[in-house]
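Session log. Operator J.P. requested a structure for one protein chain; no other inputs attached. Running the standard single-chain path with C-alpha cell output.
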Amino acid sequence: MSTISQTKKNTVSKLFLYTLLTIAAFLSIFPFYWMFVMATNDNSAINSLPPAYIPGSELVTNFTNVINTIDFFGAMWNSVIVSVITTIGVLFLCSLAGFAFAKFQFKGKNFLFVAILVTMMIPPQLGLIPQYYIITQLDWLNDLKAIIVPGLIDAFGIFWMRQYISSNVPDELVDAAKIDGCSNFRVYWNIAVPVIIPAFATLAIIKFMYIWNDFLWPLVVLRDEPSFTIQVALRGLIDNYVRDNGMILSGTFWATVPLIIVFLLLNRLFIQSLTEGAVKS
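Structure written below.
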C-alpha cells in the first residue's frame, strides 16, 4: 500500500510540475506569437474588438512596406557584424581575465576583482557623455567601431568566467601543465577552454542579445542610415501622423528571429552550464 501511495504522490507531483511548466512555456511563447499575428494583419484587424488571434494574410505586404521604408537588410547586416564581433571579443578577453583571476596569484588581485564588480553597479547612462567624448576624439562617429570597441570588455563576463573556471578547472591540472612546460596562454587554451565551452555558450547568448537589442548607444553615435543597426533603423517605421502597426510589428518580428536562432543553436550548452554543479557529488 505504501508503495502504491508513494507512486500516486509522485504521479501527482509530476503532473503538477508539468502543468506549471506548460503554463510558463505558454506565457513565454505567447508574446512572440501575438507579435507574429499582428505582423500578418492590417490596422483594421489589429484595432478591431475583439482583436485577431490567428495569423492573417498580410505578412508579405507588411514586410514589403518595411523594406520600402527602411534599409532593413543593411541594418540587419550591421547588427550581425557588431553582435558577432563583439560577442567573440567578449568571450576571448573575458575568459582570459577570468582565467587570470581564478588561477593566478598576483598583487592587488582581490582589489581589482572587487573594482570590476563595482562597475556592474554603475548605470551605463552615467558613462554616456565620457564615452561620446572619447569616440569623437577618435573620429569614430557614424562608424561601427564606436559600438564594437567599447563593448569588448564586460564586467559580468569576467565575473561569470572567473566563477566557472574556479569551480570546473582543477588547480592540479593547471599545475601539472605548468610542470610539463606549458606557458600560461597554452594552459588557458589547451586546458581551460575545452572545459568552459558551456560557459562560453551562456555568455554568448547573454552578450549577443544585449548588443543586438541595444538602442541608446547606437542612436547616439550612428547618424546616417547606411551605418544604422536594426534597433535604430526600426525607429524609422514610426510615423508621427499615420501609425501602421502591422508594418512596425512585422519589422520587429523579423528583427527578433536571429535571437531565436542563436538561442536554439546554443540552448543545449546553455542548460549544461546552468546545471553543471547539480550533478557533482
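Operator note: The chain has a mean pLDDT of 87.
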